[in-house]
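About this split. The held-out portion is used to measure sequence recovery: a designer receives only the structure tokens and must propose an amino acid at every position. Recovery is the fraction of positions where the proposal matches the reference. Here is one held-out target exactly as it appears in the evaluation file.
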């Protein structure tokens, strides 16, 4: 594995957003994150091993389809698992609050 270029979440997040420029990829991420949240609530209400194992499967399944078939890049999860997970939830928040297009443009400007 190559050396990690990003040392802080603040520096990583703009890179993360630029790795999600394709709208279909982002939509698949949102579907996966929504599914993960639904499964988490279900797990809290009715704990089961199945729900526990379905959470990451749901999140990663949709995200990786987005990367491999639409974005055509390697998911940041492989090199930055913690930052990537946090970024996915922040990107989801920016989507839900209508800020995603602005944040993506800011990221593109910052990354170059």
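Reference sequence for scoring:
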């Amino acid at each position: 594995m190559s050396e990690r270029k990003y040392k802080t979440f603040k520096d990583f997040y703009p890179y993360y957003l630029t790795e999600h420029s394709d709208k279909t990829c982002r939509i698949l991420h949102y579907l996966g994150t929504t599914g993960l949240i639904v499964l988490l609530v279900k797990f809290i209400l009715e704990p089961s091993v199945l729900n526990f194992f379905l959470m990451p499967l749901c999140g990663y399944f949709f995200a990786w389809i987005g990367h491999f078939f639409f974005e055509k890049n390697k998911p940041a999860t492989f090199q930055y698992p913690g930052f990537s997970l946090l970024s996915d939830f922040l990107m989801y928040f920016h989507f839900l609050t209508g800020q995603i297009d602005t944040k993506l443009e800011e990221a593109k400007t910052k990354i170059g």
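Annotator remark: The radius of gyration is 14 Å.
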